[in-house]
Amino acid sequence: MKSEKISAFLHERIEERDFPSAVYLVAEKGEVILHDALGFSVIEPEKIEAEINTIYDLASLTKPLVTGLLCAKLLETGEINLNDKIAKFFDEFDEDEKREITIENLLTHTSGFTAWLPFYSIADSRLQIPNLIASQPLESKRGERVIYSDLNFLMLTFLLEKIYGETLDKIAQREIFVPLELKETFYNPPKNLQKKIAASEEGNLFEKQLSAEKGFAAKEIENPKSKIQNPTTVHDGNAAFMTGVSGHAGLFSTAFETYLIARQFLAEETILLKPETCALFRTNYTEGLNEARSVAFQLAETKDSTSSNSLAKDSFGHLGFTGTSLWIEPQTRRIFIFLTNRTHARELPFANINPARRKFNELAAEFLNSR
Question: For the residues of 323-370, what is the DSSP string, one character each?
Answer without folding.
Answer: TEEEEEETTTTEEEEEEE-TTTT-PSSPP--HHHHHHHHHHHHHHHHT
